[in-house]
Amino acid sequence: MDLTSLPLSITEWLHPTAWLQLFGTFATIGVLAIIFAETGLLFGCILPGDSLLFTAGILTAVSTVNGQAFQPLSLPWLLVGGPIAAIAGAQLGHWLGARYGRKLFDRPDSRIFKQEWVEKAEYYFNRFGPAKAVVLARFIPIVRTFLNPLAGMLGMDAKKFFVWNAIGGILWTDALFLLGHFLGSEVPDVEKYILPGVAVILVLSVIPIIREVLKGRKSDRGPNKNGPEESRPSLSGDSYR
């Protein structure tokens, strides 16, 4: 692989094909590694997620994007390895949160870390409850990175976390792989629609979140607005405090 031929601008590196071009013949392994890092390591929040999975699915059906040849990816390997990498990464994140607690996030803002991202993950955790938050977070960039260690830090039971982590990991990875594969097989010149397709996926993924937030705000204005402690999620049978 001639690295001088790779795109160099930041905007180009945000395109998932740049990563797949870098991995070359090891693209399938590279995709799985990024899935693991994005869901298990804090720096993974800067890595591509939905766009990479969607594009990888397309490249199981086509081998050329915008005139650039790519090594075809294996759909069976992605469908099996993707969930495993996502589940393993999230379990690592949960363990790190349980092991190191709040000090894991006790760091100044930087280009790859911002306290507001942790606050956003904690908001979803409190708003939707542990089980639903673990699943929904898979479809929300950045939140899916920080919610896993946050769940460990807040004491979510490891077995309960694993169950919902597995459900979310399978839904997230395989749905995007299969969607990309289907479009790659059925739509001519599908490479032209990669970024618009990712944008549509992101919009659709946040619609349920927006509905839940609006529903929660309405309930906060209701008769129970003075009892927030009772409405917080239960982590292990007791109210989360």
TrEMBL record:
- Sorted alphabetically, which Pfam families does this protein's record hold? VTT_dom
TM spans (from-to): 20-45, 77-97, 161-182, 194-214
Report membrane topology.
Multi-pass membrane protein
Q: Where in the cell is it found?
A: Cell membrane
Q: Where is this region: Disordered?
A: 218-241
Q: What is its main location?
A: membrane
- Iron-sulfur as a keyword of this entry, yes or no, is no
Domain VTT span(s) in chain numbering: 48-181
**Compositional bias per record (Basic and acidic residues), positions renumbered to this chain:** 218-232
Superkingdom to which the source organism belongs: Bacteria
Keywords assigned: Cell membrane, Membrane, Transmembrane, Transmembrane helix
Family in the record: Belongs to the DedA family.
* PANTHER family linked to this entry: INNER MEMBRANE PROTEIN DEDA-RELATED, TRANSMEMBRANE PROTEIN
Q: What is this protein called?
A: DedA family protein
Q: Which organism is it from?
A: Actinomadura monticuli
User: In the record, what lineage is assigned to the organism producing the protein?
Assistant: Bacteria, Bacillati, Actinomycetota, Actinomycetes, Streptosporangiales
